[in-house]
Amino acid sequence: MSHEAPRYRAVIFDLDGTLLNTLDDLHNSVQYALSASSLPATSREDTRLAVGDGIGNLIARSIENGHQNPKFSTCLSLFKDYYAAHNTEHTAPYDGILSLLSALRKNGILIGVVSNKIDSAVKTLCERYFEKLIDYAVGEREGVRRKPAPDSLLACIEAFTLTPKDCLYVGDSEQDILTAKNAGTSIVSVTWGFRDLATLRAAGGESFAATPEQLMSMIQ
Questions:
Q1: Which pTM value belongs to this model?
Q2: pLDDT digits (tens, 9 = 90+) for 94-153
């Protein structure tokens, strides 16, 4: 009986909205920062649409006049401190994710995480929820352009000593589609995260997975 080699040697994931449902902890942290800054509250849906492009932009999109608001820096600092202390209260892997990662590992496929979330939070969350299943995890850090620049994704690929053609990138946002294009990797956009199918199609997405099981069938 013959065994075909996997289509990809590594699968690299976005984190928020792809592997982990972090929305409630992000939203609660935004609301704390806004309240402590005497700024108007926003809705959970507002937070869902604002995530994916770094926490600075998350806060900017949650307050009037964005980065120009005189309370922006204070609000961002409050968010960072609160989220660092409360980022696992409601966060959990999406259904089927642990089985997906285990199946990839069993098939000898390397697993990476590349996120626009703060690097320390990315590493902490991956260790907590995916212990020993992630080979390389990186988030937003000083001096490195965040997605959709390809820098972090290419750093992960280099750490694996692979080429972009060896790797599949998996994400849930417009930023992820652009990141994969800029890095030269294939991409599958998942529709269980923070963006809907119509938004992903409009951003140039072409391959979509509605469940982790469907995603696994596209990888094999």
A1: 0.93
A2: 999 999 999 999 999 999 999 999 999 999 999 999 989 999 999 999 989 999 999 999
**Pick from 91, 102, 72: nearest CA to 17:** 91
**Mind listing the domains of the chain with CATH numbers?**
10-22+92-219 (3.40.50.1000), 23-86 (1.10.150)
Question: What Å distances lie between residue 52 and 15, 88, 108, CA to CA?
Answer: 9, 18, 29
Cis omega (within 30 of 0) on the bond before 40?
no
Amino acid residing at 59: I
Q: Is 74 exposed, middle or buried (0-12, 13-18, 19+ CB in 10 A)?
A: middle
13, two tokens: 């994931």
Q: Are the beta carbons of 113 and 170 closer than 8 angstroms? A: no
Give me the pLDDT at residue 53, please.
86
